[in-house]
Write a sequence for this structure.
C-alpha cells in the first residue's frame, strides 16, 4: 500500500507527563477506523491521524478513500509517531536510559513535547502536588538536553576537523553535515544555523565554546522543530501555567490526553459519537453505560471540551504537520472526469507534502517511474495544464500525465 506519510513525529518529555497516554490516544483508532488496515508498527511506534476537511463536498462527489479515511466530510490522513521513553536531566551524559532515547529523537522530524502543565511532576518525573513544580523549567531542560547531546556528537574531533576545514579553505558546512547525517540533518540546515548564530563559516577554529553552543542550539531548532503539549489541563494550576508558557516562542496546545483516551475508547465501543478533534460528543448508547461512566464522560465534556474547545490531541497532530513541518494536502487522481484511480475509487489518496513541492517532485513522490516519465499535470478545478515547475497548493486535486500512463 502506498503510504501517505513520510515524516515521523516524536513524542518527548520527562517521565510521567502523559507521553504514553498521548501516544495511545493519538493512535487508538475510532470504530470506523479500527477496521482499516493500519497496524501498530512497534510497541512504541504507531499510526495517528492528521485531520482536514475533505474536498469531496466541494467537488460534489461521493469519495471512496484508500490511503486515508473520510468520516462525515473529515479526511483523516495517517501519519506515524513514536513514543519516546522519558528523558531525565543529564540524559545527554548517559543518565537514565541516556542516549538510547536521544537516539530515537534522531529519527524524528518534529517533536511533540508533552509537559505536565499542572506542575504536578518534579524534575525527575516523580509525582508532586500540582503547582509545586514550574513546567517552564521542563521546556528549558529538554532544549538543553537535546542541544548538549548534539554538542557531544559534534565536539568529537572538533579541533582537528575545524583546523583541517580552515587549512583546506572549503568551509565547515560539509564536514559538519557529514557528522550529522545520522541525525537526518541536511547541509542547508547546517548553513542556516551558522548564519543565525552569526559565525564565520571559514574560521571554525576561532569559534568559542559559547559560539559552538549557540550554533548547535540554532541547529536543533531548525532540524527538530518542537511544539508544546500542555497536558493535564484538567488539573489545578494548569491554566495559569499555560498562559505563562504562551509567552515563550512556541506553539502551546492545552491538552488532556487522558480525556482523549477516554473518548476514543468509548467511541471505539460505539458508545459515543466522537471523531478525533471534535468539540463535543454525543452519547449514542446510554443503556450500555453505567451511571459512573456517564458521569465521567460528562465531566470530560464540562471540564475539558467546553473549557478548552477540544482535548488538544488532534490540534497537536495537525499543528505538528501543518505548522512545524509546513505540509499541505494534495489529492492525486488518475481519471480527471471521475476524480478516481484506475479502479474507479473516487479521491482515493490524500498526500501530505511539504509546501513548495512542484508538480514534478510530486510525481516522484507517488512513484519513481511516474517522475521519470512525467510530461505535465492537470489541475482538476480548472482543467488547466501545470508545468513541471509549478508549485502545488493546499487542497489541490491533480492528475499527472506521463509518457507511459496517467496516475
Ligand atoms: N489528570 C491527568 N492525568 C493524566 C493525563 N494524561 C496522563 N495522565 C496521567 O499521568 C500519568 C503518567 O502518564 P503516562 O502516559 O504513563 O506518562 P509518560 O510520560 O509516558 O511516562 P513515562 O513513560 O514514565 O516517561 C498516568 O497516571 C496518567 O494517567 C491528563 O490529561 N490528565
Ligand atoms: Mg511512557
Amino acid at each position: 500500500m502506498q503510504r501517505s506519510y513520510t515524516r515521523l513525529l516524536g513524542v518527548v518529555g520527562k517521565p510521567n507527563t502523559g507521553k504514553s497516554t498521548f501516544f495511545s490516544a493519538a493512535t487508538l483508532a475510532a470504530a470506523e477506523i479500527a477496521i482499516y488496515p493500519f497496524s501498530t508498527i512497534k510497541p512504541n511506534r504507531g499510526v495517528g491521524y492528521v485531520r482536514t476537511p475533505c474536498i469531496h463536498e466541494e467537488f460534489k462527489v461521493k469519495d471512496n478513500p484508500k490511503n486515508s479515511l473520510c468520516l462525515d466530510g473529515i479526511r483523516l490522513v495517517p501519519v506515524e509517531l513514536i513514543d519516546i521513553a522519558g528523558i531525565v536531566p543529564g540524559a545527554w551524559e548517559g543518565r537514565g536510559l541516556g542516549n538510547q532515547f536521544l537516539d530515537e529523537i534522531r529519527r524524528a522530524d518534529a517533536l511533540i513535547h508533552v509537559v505536565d502543565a499542572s506542575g504536578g511532576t518534579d524534575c525527575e518525573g516523580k509525582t508532586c502536588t500540582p503547582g509545586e513544580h514550574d513546567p517552564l523549567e521542563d521546556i528549558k531542560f529538554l532544549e538543553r538536553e537535546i542541544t548538549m547531546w548534539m554538542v557531544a556528537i559534534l565536539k568529537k574531533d572538533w579541533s582537528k576537523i575545524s583546523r583541517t576545514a580552515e587549512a583546506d579553505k572549503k568551509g565547515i558546512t560539509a564536514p559538519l553535515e557529514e557528522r550529522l547525517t545520522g541525525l537526518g540533518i541536511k547541509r542547508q540546515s547546517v548553513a542556516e544555523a551558522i548564519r543565525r548564530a552569526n559565525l564565520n563559516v571559514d574560521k571554525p577554529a576561532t569559534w568559542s565554546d559559547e559560539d559552538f553552543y549557540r550554533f548547535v542550539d540554532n541547529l536543533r531548532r531548525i532540524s527538530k522543530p518542537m511544539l508544546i503539549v500542555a497536558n493535564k489541563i484538567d488539573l489545578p494550576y494548569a491554566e495559569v501555567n499555560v498562559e505563562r508558557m504562551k509567552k515563550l516562542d512556541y506553539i502551546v496546545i492545552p491538552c488532556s490526553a487522558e480525556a482523549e483516551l477516554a473518548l476514543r475508547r468509548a467511541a471505539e465501543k460505539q458508545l459515543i459519537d466522537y471523531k478525533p478533534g471534535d468539540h463535543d460528543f454525543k452519547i449514542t448508547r446510554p443503556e450500555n453505560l453505567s451511571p459512573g461512566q456517564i458521569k465521567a464522560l460528562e465531566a470530560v465534556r464540562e471540564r475539558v471540551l467546553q473549557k478548552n474547545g477540544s482535548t488538544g490531541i488532534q490540534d497537536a497532530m495537525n499543528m505538528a504537520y501543518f505548522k512545524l513541518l509546513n505540509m499541505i494536502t494534495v489529492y492525486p487522481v488518475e481519471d480527471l472526469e471521475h476524480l478516481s484511480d484506475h479502479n474507479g475509487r473516487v479521491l482515493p489518496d490524500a498526500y501530505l507534502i511539504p509546501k513548495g513541492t512542484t508538480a514534478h517532485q510530486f510525481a516522484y513522490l507517488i512513484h519513481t517511474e511516474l517522475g521519470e516519465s512525467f510530461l505535465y499535470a492537470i489541475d482538476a478545478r480548472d482543467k488547466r495544464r501545470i508545468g513541471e515547475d509549478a508549485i502545488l497548493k493546499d487542497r489541490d486535486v491533480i492528475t499527472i500525465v506521463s509518457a507511459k500512463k496517467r496516475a
DSSP finds 14 helices and 14 strands in the chain. The first helix runs from residue 19 to 27. Confidence is low (pLDDT under 50) at residues 30-41. The pocket of magnesium ion (ligand 2) is lined by residues 19-20 (CB under 6 Å).
